[in-house]
């Protein structure tokens, strides 16, 4: 099969012909029909993820058709249209059996712990626990865009952030994660403030539900601006970018008993950012992480998509071919364009 391969961290990936994957006893092989481009792939390529062994095939936001399944798989057979969360739970450890597959102790991550979906085929382990059937009307590009950023935002806003109608929600960073979070929080009935450095992304954020925007490049004190708009601070705030400044601001702009959820990855030099711990104590603030979403929670999100409350298809950006993927991956370190880029031609 054709695949995007990198031999060394930080060196240009190339298109290579490699062996077709075979299914693990509890796994399947999926013919990839669409795979999203994500900043996490860029982090992996840069060498920020110590789980990656070289040579490596990136890609973890995928949708496709099952072509083969292992002898132990009971729920899935060839021909079914599926997607999968990026953190695939083993189904057996304490976290999995308590319903928290997203933090499984032995998680399988395509594009990180194993070869990913920037290829014609990808092998996914623990299929019975983790595969999600696609609604007939959902196209593969939309389904692929759910896999990492949209589901992560759904869990961050709904399950971890516990957003309720009428609350003020602030989203720092309007890339794929941020725009997803704005759409989801707004559908949950919250008043959403979008923050970014570009007016173009902020205009788009307004179109999908933000009631106010702040251009951080033109605003000397972002925290003060949030407190003014919200009359005292946000109930829930999210760092969707993953940067010491946005993380700090997202905590500092909370009102008393506010909740911060960190979704943007903090790796390399950014792994240990400053936290306004004085405020965390005095205001009883909550700080939570959010890491993917369990396959069984997809159903709630899929129902909101089916009824038109959520429209992830609006967030699908550029569609490219596998041949264009290496250049697009290397460019992810800079600022992204609007929406989620998806490889749809293999
Ligand atoms: Zn597990
Ligand atoms: Zn991702």
From TrEMBL:
CDD domains in the record: Zn_ADH6 (cd08260)
Domain of life of the organism encoding this protein: Bacteria
Any one GO molecular function term: zinc ion binding
Domain Enoyl reductase (ER), residue spans: 10-343
Tagged with keyword Iron: no
UniProt keyword list: Metal-binding, Oxidoreductase, Zinc
Gene3D superfamilies linked: Medium-chain alcohol dehydrogenases, catalytic domain (3.90.180.10)
Cofactor or coenzyme needed: Zn(2+)
Family to which the UniProt record says this protein belongs: Belongs to the zinc-containing alcohol dehydrogenase family.
PANTHER family recorded: ALCOHOL DEHYDROGENASE-RELATED, L-THREONINE 3-DEHYDROGENASE
Protein known as: Alcohol dehydrogenase
Species name: Mesorhizobium sanjuanii
């Amino acid at each position: 099969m054709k695949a995007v391969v990198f031999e060394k961290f930080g060196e240009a990936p190339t298109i290579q012909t490699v062996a077709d994957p075979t299914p693990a006893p509890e796994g399947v092989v999926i013919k990839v029909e669409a795979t999203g481009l994500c900043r996490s792939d860029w982090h992996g390529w840069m060498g920020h993820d110590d789980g990656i062994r070289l040579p490596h095939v990136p890609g973890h936001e995928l949708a496709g058709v099952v072509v083969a399944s292992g002898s132990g798989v009971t729920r899935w057979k060839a021909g079914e249209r599926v997607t999968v969360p990026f953190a695939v739970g083993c189904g057996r450890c304490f976290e999995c059996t308590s319903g928290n597959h997203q933090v499984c102790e032995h998680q399988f991550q395509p594009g990180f712990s194993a070869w990913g979906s920037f290829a014609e085929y990808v092998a996914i382990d623990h299929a019975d626990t983790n595969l999600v059937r696609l609604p007939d009307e959902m196209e593969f590009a939309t389904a692929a865009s759910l896999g990492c950023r949209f589901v992560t935002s759904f869990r961050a806003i709904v399950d971890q952030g516990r957003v309720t109608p009428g609350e003020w929600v602030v989203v720092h960073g309007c890339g794929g994660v941020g725009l997803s979070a704005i759409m989801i929080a707004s559908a949950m009935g919250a008043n959403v403030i979008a923050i970014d450095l570009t007016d173009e992304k902020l205009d788009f954020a307004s179109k999908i539900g933000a009631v106010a925007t702040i251009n951080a490049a033109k605003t000397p004190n972002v925290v003060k601006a949030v407190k003014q708009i919200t009359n005292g601070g946000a109930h829930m705030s999210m760092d969707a970018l993953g940067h010491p400044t946005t993380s700090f601001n997202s905590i500092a702009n909370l009102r008393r008993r506010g909740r911060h959820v960190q979704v943007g990855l903090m790796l390399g030099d950014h792994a240990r950012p400053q936290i306004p711990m004085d405020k965390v104590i005095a205001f009883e603030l909550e700080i939570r992480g959010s890491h993917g979403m369990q396959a069984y929670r997809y159903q709630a999100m899929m129902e909101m998509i089916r009824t038109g409350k959520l429209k992830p298809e609006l967030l699908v950006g550029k569609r490219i071919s596998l041949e264009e993927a290496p250049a697009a991956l290397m460019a992810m370190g800079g600022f992204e364009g609007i929406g989620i880029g998806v490889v749809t031609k293999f």
